[in-house]
Amino acid sequence: MRFYETMFVVKPTLTQEEITQKIDFYKAAIINNSGEISATLDMGMRNLAYEIKKNKRGYYFVIYFKAEPKLVLELERLYRINEEILRFIVIKYESKKEQKAWETLVDRAINNKKSEPLKEVEDKPQDA
Question: pLDDT tens digit string along 65-84?
């Protein structure tokens, strides 16, 4: 099994229940395809660096997992066909040094306990 990290950004127009369903869907996709989730990091609603599909904000979620390479292809396919996903990325950690960094990120995600219930981040006024 290889070490991976995936982050995706969900449209801000969804309700918290719908966002939770999307997150659970991708977690289930990893588990159902023989993947093993090591940690998750719920980053919440944040401002995007630039507007994507007329959205200035998005809900960020990160999953650290171990899986075979074929799972990544399926995961990317699922991201692409879902209109509620604004952006996604899958990162592979290959070398021993990278895998050690992955383990550090997993430990940090577990210790931060940010995978608690969804929280709304306050809107801050943006300078024009």
Answer: 999 989 999 999 999 999 99
